[in-house]
Structures are given as structure tokens and as C-alpha cells.
Queue: 2 jobs
Job 1
Amino acid sequence: MTAPDTSQLLDHLRADLAEVMGDDVLLAVDITPDTRFDDDLALESIEFVALGEILRERYGERVDFPGFIAGMELDEIMSLTVGRLLAYISDRLAESATV
Amino acid sequence: MVDVVARDVRFHVQRISPPEGAPADRPVVVFLHGLILDNLSSFYYTLAGPVAGTGAETIMYDLRGHGRSQRPPAGYTVDDAVDDLAALLTELGVQQPVFLVGNSFGGVVALRFALRHPHDVAGLVVIEAHTVGDGAGDWTEHMSNTLTVTALGLAHDDLADQLSKLGDRKLARAARLAGELLNGTTLIDDVAATPPLHGPELAAIRCPVLAVYGVHSDLAAAGRQLAGLLPDCTLHMIPDQAHTVLREATPLVRTLVLDWLHRHTAAS
């Protein structure tokens, strides 16, 4: 199976964020890899948990949100960029595609 | 697993499991958060991952009316929260005694659960719990009055709409959630109606307890009384901290909880 490219992953993530936060977020913010979850999107910490659950449903156990945030404190997690999360997803999908 | 229905309420549940290979009879640790603007994320980002990393199964859920759980109009007493927890453990198929980790109101729920279900509890971590000790009634009344004033303000000022217009999504959502909980449910009356746990009740809680309080917290004296009344309690007073120790002193609280759990899960 071919892993989706970054622009496909970004499209998926836009849809997932809209599911968690409501469609308004897509009108309010142009979501790019540089977008920060906290400062730019005003994503709440409980919404980030819900997003992690949706990612697991979409990509399976190989995208492990608790594993991704392990070792980070809350401030660090919330100030992550969209690009950093996409890079993690991309790495995990590429890893499982080559196994 | 995300949504679990118990006592006709839909609860948002999250679990972080230990690495593969953990034994089937591994310890189960359940986390209970505080009131109004708190939710399971307080534990998801602080304690749950590291606790799971030691080989325990972790369960977090949003209390009724909080976070992403359903918000019924009634059922917000501490005993309701105890009944919710018992029903959730049944729905989740948990049959062994569990460790409960409760912050603030969650600590009160943990203590009362241990009192009512002594055989279902292996141990408690109580962080900044109120409604214990001599000053508990005063503190509950003070909190209830503060919440009532807040509720009136939220109802009359339309604060959420104003914040939303200002573009502050997080504050607007917090104000809306607080308004719906305080004005749309029986929470204030229910919490105020719960009597504090007194000495004989606390003396009946035989399981090991770790109590964590901030030195500068309004509840510091309650923490010391709790430690004096519980038969098997280890008390840690965190220097330079007040009520929000979990948020403000996360690494220290994490170390205390992991060390304590390690000692007591090895013993059990």
C-alpha cells in the first residue's frame, strides 16, 4: 500500500479538525503545516485528545497519539504545529508500509 | 473505545494501555478530574501515559456534564459520581480492585467510592480534595456561593457571545460550558448538598492513600487533617504551590505518584 502524500494528509487533517472543532474552523483559519494548534487554531486540550482518537480510527494503531506526545509537557504539546503532527503520521505510515 | 453508556448517560472514556506483553492481571488505574472547566485531559497529558508505561492499564473519563460527556440536567452529587464510576467499571468489564487517582472534586469522589465500595479499591491518590476535615463545610459553602455568583454573571452578561465576538474561542467556549453547567443543571445545589466526610468515615477507609496538597492551598489544613484521620496515608505537601499542583508542579506530582504506585502495585 502506498502511503498518502503530505497534501493528502493535510486534507485529511483539515477534515478531522472540522469534525472535532466544528466546520467554522475551516472558514476562520487557513490551515497549513505552519499552523499552531494552540495560538492559531485555539484547539482545546480535550479536543486534541479527541483528534488523537479520530487519527487512530483513520490510520489504525500505527498512529499512536499517546506515544507521539509521550515525554512532552502540556504547553509543548499544545504549541505543536500541524506540520509536526503530519510528519509523525507520515513517518509512521511509511514505516508500516516498508515492514 | 470512546463513548460508554452507564446509568443512561453517555461518557467520554479514554484508555492508555501498557506496552504489549503486560500481564493480564496488571493493575488498573482510574483517573477522576475536578469540577466545571476540568476534564480528562488534565490526566491524559500528565500522569496517564507515564503510569501506563510502568505496566498499568489506565482509564480516564469525563465526569457527567464535563468535557465531551453528556450533560444531563441532574445527578451531580458526590454519590451520583460514585454510582457513575461503579457503573462504568461494570460496563468496561473491570472486576479487580482499582487504584483511583482523583484531583480536587475527583479526590472527594475517590474517597467516597473507597468508603462505599471498600473491596473494589486497591489504593487512592488524592490530590487537593475538599470536603474533608473540620473546615470542609465552610469551604463547600464558599465554593457554592462563588459558583452561584458566577452563574448569575454568565446568565445575565451574555459573556460567551461577547468573547466569541472578540475572537477568543477558548474563553468563549469555557464561558458557554460553565454557563450551561451552572445554569442548566442542578450541579451547584447537588455539590452543596453533599456532606463532608467526617473522622469516623475516614477512619473506615483502610486502603493505602497518597495525599498531595499545595503548601499555600486553602485546603492545606484539610490535607493535614485527612492524613491524620486516614489509617494508612502518606502526605506530601508541595512547596510554593496552591490548589493547582497537578497543573503547576506536574513533574514532581508525577514522580510522587509513580513511586507510590510502584511500591503499592508491587505489594498487591
Note: Strands of chain B lie at 3-6, 9-16, 28-32, 57-61, 98-103, 121-127, 209-214, 233-238.
Job 2
Amino acid sequence: MSATSRGDFPPELHDAHAAMRLGPYLRDLWERRSYVWYESVSELRSRQVTNVLGNLWHLLNPALNIFVYFLIFGLLLKVDRGVDNFILFLSTGLFIFQLTQKTTTDGARSIVSNKGLLRAIKFPRAMLPVTGAVTEMLSALSSFAVLFVIALLTGETPSPRWLVLVPLLAVQFVFNLGASFIAARLTTHFVDVIQILPFFFRLVLYASGVIFNVTSYVDEGSGVRVLFVLNPMYCFITIGRWAMMGGDLDLWVVLSGTVWSFALCVGGFLFFRAAEERYARV
Amino acid sequence: MSEVAPATVEADAAPPVSVNVVHADIRYRVFQDNFLSARQMVSRGFRGRQSVDVHAVDDVSFQVRAGEALGIVGSNGSGKSSLLRAIAGLQSLTSGLIEVRGRTGLLGVGAALKPALSGYRNVMLGGLAMGLTREEIDAEMEGVIEFSGLGDAMGRPMQTYSSGMQARLAFSIATLRVPEILLIDEALAVGDMEFRTRSLERVNQIRDEAGTVIMVSHSLKEITDSCSRAIWLDQGVLRMEGPAVDVVAAYEESV
């Protein structure tokens, strides 16, 4: 009942607690990619398994989400000032925002909800937040399918510019990984992080112009505008809207979003890994 | 930290040292819940959660050689599990050194990896987390089902399993990829006679194939049957080390 050992452990005596160097750690993590993929896909399959409409919910969920937001902000509160296609404007912002929100929330639970696995098996712990990020990215694909349907239904003509969403989501994935690593470790220090996150993201929702057009409310060149450009979520959403709806794109927004992503990912990873041994004890 | 001795130079005949524990020391800081009422909390200035230092393992040193099975005996809370987890690299040491040769595999109680998921998915996730490929695990799956005797129950969530069924599956998962060093923490205790016999056979087989087995058990017969040597931990301190029968006899006499 034994599989062949691949001999990735040195045959000589070695310190069972030696901190793994970065190279071998990343290699070990790469070797766990089938775990990441298998767990992400089975998680998505099992999420809807008890619902009557089953996998249809992967599409219904984002559609209903947009419907509710549009009802409240578009029709009741009329915050659609300065926007031609408010439904598409809102959908793009909301889906991009929710991707980061869900990934970070998943990340926050990734260590504390996997005690059984952590206590039994030694593996690079970063595997768990990475799995959450991949799961949410796969789950978001259905949201973006809905987004394209909304764009077509609201009369946008398909444009090659839409393809910009692909590199945008790739960069945002890098950002989400970083946010996930940080949330995962913080939760092992204070479980309360899970309670705080919804409020934090509610704040980010309003601070990133998800439901209103920042340019219609804040003067160009003002100090407040600079603050928005420094907010990575605002940058991702702005790029996404440009891809779907056209218009002008401030290159500072692209630069800020990209720098944020890679800085947060590297910083988050180092922060997460510094407590690697702690995670078996939570 | 006191001086850390390297593994002793091996004599030609003796098999190599595969686990070298040198002055291992483990202390935890745990929060103590005093079950205070709100009023008591206020009067104590919200210091209801007091932290206590637990000295789980106190300056323990020993060596185990390849092909050897070592038993660990001791009362509850004597630091046996902490020590095993430290050898597995899952629990950090406060001071000291633990060296191992090859891969360690820890088999503990209540070892559902993800209780809400089916037995099948637990086997898959456990194997993938160890770094096996899907194909390798699929190739083992039949053997797992056969060894664990779970049959159709493989599709049910693991939290619906009896503790014996969980133990069977956990044993199968831990030995999916035969570790050079198998650490068993009371995991066989909840199984029935048949499972214990079969898993002990498997343990002995791993030991005979020049693997190393370290076994914590309250069944002293299991220790004397499978292990040539044993150590006795008493409140984290190594009280005695020697032939399993002698250590078990001394331990039995003390309780």
C-alpha cells in the first residue's frame, strides 16, 4: 500500500525544525499544485450541491447581486450621476471588489479552519491561502461571464479592449494572494479578524467608488483624488471599467495597481511564512 | 540553549541513527479560562484570561536507530504527544535540537483531516498535501478501501464515522506514502481487535523494512509486543530509558 518515495527528504540526519530556505519552500509549494486544483474544484462543486438549482447558482448569484444593488443605488438613490450605462458600471465595480473581498475572507479562515490537516501533515502552509485564492478566482469566472452578458444586453458592442480583463484579473490575483496571506496569519493571532473583515470591506466598498463615479464627485487634480489613486481597489475597478466601457485611463492608476499587487504579494508572503511553525498549533 | 551534541559516530555494525533528540525542551504559554462572571471580570480589570506556562517537555535526549521501534509510556499530560509532534516538525522546540533521517509521518487520534468531507476526499486531500500525485493516490485507493474495510462509507462525511472507522482511515492516509519514520500517537487504541492486529502487522513491517517507529500507547502490551526499547516520560522529564519490558515494568510498578 505504498507509493514510491520521491526522495525529496535528505537521506542524512537533518534538523526537523530547520527553517526551509525560500527555494525549496517554493518548490514544495509548486509540488502541491494538484492539491490546490483538486480542492478548489471540489469546493466549488460542493458549494451548490444542496440547492435545488445546483450549479445554476454560480450564475444566478452574481446576477441577483447586481439586481439588488441596481435597485437600491440606481433606481432608489439615483447615484448614477455622470454614468451612461450604470448597470454595467456597477457590475464591473462590484465583481472586481467582491473578488478581493471573498478571497481575503477565505484567506482569513484558511488556517483556522484546517486544523485537522495542519496537525497531521507537514506541507508548506502557504498552500492553504493559495487554495482559497484559486477557488475564489475560479468562482469569479462565472461572475465575469454574467458581466459580459450584461454588457451585451445593455447594448455595448464587443471590443478587443474587453480582453484587458485577463491581465487585470491576473494582477488582481497577485494582490488577492498577498491580502490572503496577511489575513490568514492575523487570524491565527486574533480570531476576531474574521468578525472585523466585513466592516473593513464595507468601508473599502465606499472608498473605492464601487457604486458611484468618483470623477463626478471629486475634482480632478485635488488631493482627495490622489488618495483614490493610492487605493488599489479603486485602481483595479477603474481599469476594469475602462476595459468594459472605454473612456480615458490614467496611467498612474495602472502603475499604482500593479505596484500594490506585487508589493503586497511579496510582503504578505514573507509575513505569512515568518510564522510557519505556529500554524500547526492554532 | 545548552551544548548540542552531534549524532554519535556510528559503529560499523549498528544501523544508523534516524532520530536524534538532544536536550529537547518545549514550553507553551496557554490562556486559562477562569469562567468568571461579568462582575468578577470588571473587578479584576478584565484580566480573566490569565496565561500559564506549561513545561511540556523538559530537557529530553535520546536516539532511535533505523529498524528500531521505540515505545513511549507515561501518564496523561506527561509530554508524549508534544514530543511526537516536535519530532514530526509540527511543534517548535523552545530549545534543543531534533534531527531526523528521511520523512516523518504522524498518526494521531481524531485524525479526520476535514471532518465535513467524505472519506474519499480526505484520502485524496491527505495524499495531495503530502505531495503525492492524483495517479499515485488513485493507485492506492483500492488498497486503502480494502485495508480500512470502509466500503461504501468512503463516500460519507468523515464526521459521521465512528472513532474506530476514523482511525482505520487515518492509518491508511498516514501510510499512503510509507514514511521513513512513523510516529503513532495512541491512534490504534480506538480500533477493534481486527484493526489493531492488522495495523500492528503493518507497523512491524515498516520497522522490519529498516523504517523507524516511535509509538505512544497506553496499551503496555502493544509496546512490549512491537518495541524493543522504550522511554518513560514523567511530567516532561525522561524518567527511564531501556529495554521495553524493563521500562514498562517500572512504569507499571509506579502507578
Note: The interface with chain B takes residues 1-6, 8-9, 11-17, 28, 31-32, 34-35, 38-39, 42, 114, 116-123, 127, 277-278, 280-281 of chain A (CB under 8 Å).
